[in-house]
Structure formats: C-alpha cells, structure tokens
Amino acid sequence: FLNGITEYFREGEHNGGEVAMIVRLYGNVWIAMVTLFMSISGGVDWQEAMEPLVRVHWVYEPIFVYFIFFMFFGVLNIVVGAFVTATNEISKKDRELLVNAELGAVDAYTKRIKE
Predict the structure, then answer these.
(1) Residue 31 · residue 1 · CB < 8 Å
(2) Burial letters for 8-41: b for 16+ Cβ neighbours within 10 Å, e otherwise?
(3) Residues 86-115: pLDDT tens digits?
C-alpha cells in the first residue's frame, strides 16, 4: 500500500483534504501497520481505512478486502483455534484431577466401612 501511495504523491498535486486523510492513515510504515491492525481488530471501520486507498487506485480496494478476509478468517481463526485447544487440554487435566479425587474419596470410604 505504501509504495502505491508514494507513487501517487509523485504524480502531481492533490487537494489538501485528500492528502491529510492519506497521511493520517498511511503516513509512514508504523502508522500504516497500526491502521491495518486496527482494521482487522475493530478499531477502525474498514471503509474508513479503504477510502484513501481507493482514491490512490481502484486496484487497492480488492487487495484491501482480500487482506481483511485473509487476516480475519485465516490467521485470527488459527489463533482462536490454538486458544481453544489449550483450553481443552486444561479442561482434560481438571477432569482427571476431579476423577482421581473422587476415586480417592471412594477408597477412603471403602476403608472406613471395612474397619
């Protein structure tokens, strides 16, 4: 995205509002990364982040939509899957501890009855 924005500014003069919006969302590498992160995490509306890119060139619209789709449905779902797997493992250990505690209580009760 930044390469296209740089070339866009090299081509000629643009109105101040358009330049301010592009610089606010994609002014340098760090700001662009924060904007893209905020786009996938709900901090910025997708349309708000995509609008300056569409003004640069129409091809950035499908690229941005693909980025959102890939990050949201691909990467974030893998991260959520990892958390679910970890939680499931912890749940199994808790279940085993509960069963062992119950078996211990049954053994203790059995010993008391036999005495």
Answers:
(1) no
(2) beeeeeeeeeeeeebeebbeeeeebeebbeebbe
(3) 888 777 777 677 777 788 888 887 888 887
